[in-house]
Every structure is written in C-alpha cells, then in structure tokens.
Amino acid sequence: MQDKGLSTLVGLANEGSTGIVGRARGDLKRLRKWQQKLSGFDSKERSLSHALIELTRVGERLNISNHVLNEASHIFRIVLERKLVRGISISVMAAASLCIALRQEGVSRNLTELSSAWDLEPKKISRIYRLLTRQLRIKIPVVDPLNHVRKICGRAGLSKKVMLEAEKIVRLAQRKKLTIGKSPIGTASAAVYYACVLMDAEKTQQEIAVAANITEVTLRNRYKNLNDHLEYAPPTHRIDST
Fold first, then answer.
1. Terminus-to-terminus CA distance in the chain, angstroms?
2. What is the C-alpha to C-alpha distance for residues 198 and 98, in angstroms, rounded to an integer?
3. Are 110 and 214 in contact (CB under 8 A)?
4. CA 18, CA 225: separation in Å to the nearest integer?
5. In whole angstroms, what is the distance from residue 12 CA to residue 38 CA?
6. Which run of H or E residues covers position 225?
C-alpha cells in the first residue's frame, strides 16, 4: 500500500499543551500506531519488490526455472516477515534465499556463479545462507560430488576413462571422510584434475576450474587436500602450480 507521498508522521509532541485528553488522545495514539504499521508494510513491500526484480534478473542470467525462483521469493518473504535478519542488504538476502531454493530442488549452481551474478562476495552469501537454514530449520539434501564429475568431464572434453578414474577418487575421498563439510563441486573438480594428472590427460588447473565454474584457488586447495590424504598418486607426483 502506498501513501502517495503523504508520509508525515502523526506525533504527540504537543498533546499536553493543547489539552488532548481521554478519548481524543486515545484516537491520536491509535492513528499514529496504524500509520506506523502502514509505513512498515510499505517498506516490506518495497523490499520484496526489489528482491523479486533481483531474482528475476539473476534467474534469466543463470537460466533458473520459474519454479525455483518462486520458491526463493517465498523464502525471502518469510525471512522478511519474521525479521530473521537485520542490517543485511536485500541483495544478500535474496541471493541466500535463491541458494536455499536451488539446493532444496537439487539444482546445480555453485556459489561462485551466484556471487558473480549479484556482484557480491561469496562469504557474505554463504554466511547468511547458513544463518537462514538454521533459523528456518531447513534441511538441505546432501549433493553427491559424483553428480558433478560427469558434467565437468563433459565440459572439459575429457574421456570416459578419465571420468571413471575421477569417480574412483571421489569414492575413496568419501570413504576417508574427506568430503564432509566441503563443496561437492569443489571435490568433484579436484578429483577430475587428480585423474587428469594420473592419466596424463593434458589439462591445466585453469581449464578444469573453468569447466567446473570455480576459481583456480578453490581447485588448488581441494586438490592439495586430496593429494595429501588419499595416497592414491605415485610418490613422484607433484602439484601443478600453473
């Protein structure tokens, strides 16, 4: 509801000097209370409108279905109505809401894609994402890194042999509990690069990172973690620093 610019707040500053008492004073208080409610409602509607515009823009850019976008807007509305987050920009709240909706629906989109689309730091989105999932008591289905291996190999133009080797590495990492708390796509991309090194597939970290749509730093860190703990590679193997 819009106030057409008539947003002057009804006050009680002069009520004592003008002799406003009894029912008249009560009416004035009720009027101010309702005006404050309407003002708050307008603010929420503006925030929701802004979020919907942002979600639509990002949805078109990342080719996200209307079903997921509707779920994200529903989550955003709940967060807004319950006042779960204060002092956080609408963009960060909308991005976190979309992240939750994507993972609930099992849609593969990593944090790098979302942060780039919103021009936000991934850490900001991740922090609010974790906060909202806790406060809303949302259980996010666990995404298996194996689901990403085939896609990454396809985008990188790798052979089926490399893909199968990467899947073996992922399963070994899972048995050793190296994937707990780690990004599934980060683990998958590291396993793919690991397989490339073992099988002499001429792919650089940059090429695999591009195929997985993650940063080289993320790939390098996850690969180092696997290489340090799996003992799957020959002793002479060294990390590619390119």
1. 57
2. 37
3. yes
4. 75
5. 18
6. helix 216-230
d(CA 219, CA 216): 5
What the block records as the tokens of 160 is 């089926």
User: pLDDT tens digits for 51-89?
Assistant: 899 999 998 888 888 888 999 999 999 998 888 878 889
Q: What is the pLDDT of residues 97-146, one digit of tens each?
A: 999 998 887 776 778 888 888 899 988 998 999 899 898 888 877 778 89
Same fold, 22-135 and 146-230: yes
Encode pLDDT of 18-60 as tens digits.
444 444 455 545 545 544 554 555 677 888 888 899 999 998 8
Instruction: Give, in order, the Cα–Cα distances in Å from 194 to each of 161, 205, 228.
Output: 13, 10, 12
Q: What angle do CA 80, 131, 222 make, to 5 degrees?
A: 135
Instruction: Scan for tokens 């009680």, then name that residue.
Output: 12
Residue 16 has pLDDT above 50, yes or no: no
Separation of alpha carbons 104 and 139, rounded Å: 8
User: Tell me, what DSSP letter sits at residue 161?
Assistant: H
At the topology level of CATH, where does 22-135 sit? Cyclin A; domain 1 (1.10.472)
Is residue 75 a contact partner of residue 93, using CB atoms and an 8 Å limit?
no
**Structural domain boundaries of the chain?**
22-135, 146-230
Distance from C-alpha of 194 to C-alpha of 178, rounded to nearest angstrom: 15
Q: Which CATH superfamily is domain 146-230 in?
A: Cyclin-like (1.10.472.10)
Q: Tokens standing for 157?
A: 């133009």
